[in-house]
Model the fold of this input.
Amino acid sequence: STTRVGNGRRFLLPPDGYAPRRIFIPFSGVASEMIGCGLAGWEHVVGVEFDTENNYVEIAKKRLEHYEEV
Done:
């Protein structure tokens, strides 16, 4: 199935029979792709980021907290 997100773009999702829909995001950076997946309808989004030099993990945590409130 597909879903539309804010800007009208379509995203492909697994069929409803595969619920909960899970996706793994390696090298998740500041969580932009994770946030997009959540907005597109994925129920379980997991991201991994190991870059501690650029503070990506802390930025990602704050961004995810913000989008969980929305």
